[in-house]
Amino acid sequence: MYKSGRFVAEALGDLRPEQVQPNGVDLTLAAVSEQVEPGRIERGDKHVGDRTEIDPDDGVYRLEPGAYVAEYGERVAVPEGHVGFVYPRSSLMRNSCMLHTAVWDAGYEGRGEGLLEVHHEIELEADARIAQFVLAEAAHEETYEGSYQHEKLD
Ligand SMILES: O=c1ccn([C@H]2C[C@H](O)[C@@H](COP(=O)(O)OP(=O)(O)OP(=O)(O)O)O2)c(=O)[nH]1
């Protein structure tokens, strides 16, 4: 069962009131980058290819069609007994852009990333709300202890 937006907001903390939605909380766009070298997925390890961060122009990212990595501004913490997912804000999708998500594991804490697919040029203001984070109840044995634990926390 998906939890309420208020429950998700309490798990994340430190949000503006307009970020709290009925079924989740909105995440903002903290940074945009483009991958510039190949990554590698091996049977036992992985390597994320280098990226170049895009500078916003007067606070606005003007993006041509392509694939980008979006960094979210909020510290996400997935409580035990739950799993998280990110959906695009529907206005982003209605503008021919999409955010893709992997699984946000129970116990993960950090500022995560998503794959931003731009199918028609778009302007995104820095710190604008672009995504919605939701939590669902989920059974699990362990909690997250992978290499991205505590990423981009101050
Ligand atoms: O769209 C997503 C989905 C997940 N995460 C975060 C939360 C998740 O718990 C963590 C690790 O994801 P995953 O377990 O899929 O990473 P991995 O590629 O298997 O690496 P590792 O084994 O080091 O965890 O990344 C994101 O930032 N963006």
From TrEMBL:
Which GO terms fall under molecular function for this chain's record?
Answer: dCTP deaminase activity
Alphabetical keyword list: Hydrolase, Nucleotide metabolism
Q: What is this protein called?
A: Deoxyuridine 5'-triphosphate nucleotidohydrolase
Residue runs in coiled coils: none
Q: Which domain of life is it from?
A: Archaea
BP-aspect Gene Ontology terms? dUTP biosynthetic process
InterPro entries the record matches? dCTP_deaminase, dUTPase-like_sf, dUTPase_trimeric
Listed transmembrane segments: none
